[in-house]
Predict the structure.
Amino acid sequence: MSEKPEPGLYKLLADGYYATERFVPARDYYDKLIAAGVKDKDAYLRRGLMQLEAGEYQEALSDFDNAQKAGENSVTLFVNKGRAHIALENTKAAIIELNKAIELDPKNANALFNRGYIKETIEDFEGAILDYNKVIQINPNDAIAFYNRATCKSELEDYGAGISDMDEAIRIDAKNASYYKQRGNFYYQMNEKEKACFDWRKAVEFGDAKARFQIDTYCK
């Protein structure tokens, strides 16, 4: 009769598979380790991260909470708790977790970006802009942060500032159709039809077929 493997072996195998990004067997062995009653913070955190990527948000939060109870207190934990809450549309809880991450690391661009995104979704555009400002200070080549900040500025009807941010996004990612379409929308709001139509045509050129609607409607 074979002996039941020791939990230490489960952890050794799980960690090895996780380190080499073989996530299916890693998760299997973390499952076995946790089922054996071992309250290992790394096991809970890593299984939670895999659950998060698999779209199992509630399960991920449960593992993150258990990781925290077992002593985990890291930026990674709080950022990913925030991400799970964002996916579940728990905006208040997400901001609380991201605030904890930022308290630990005030220059964590990932935490700041996600907090800015939440503020944008709840229409706190000024607050979102402040967070995107910090992201851009940390990483001046974050095209998405420029795009999102431009969107917030447009919501505050500052289309000129929005165009300046879209110029930067396009400088960084010159073939992104969404950026041209958005800048075209801003130009149209400023009654600069010729520039708007140019950008919408560029959006179509780079793969956004829906931008043809603007061209057909406003560029005749």
In short: The CA atoms of residues 153 and 161 lie 7 Å apart. The chain has 13 helices and no strands. The chain has a mean pLDDT of 96.
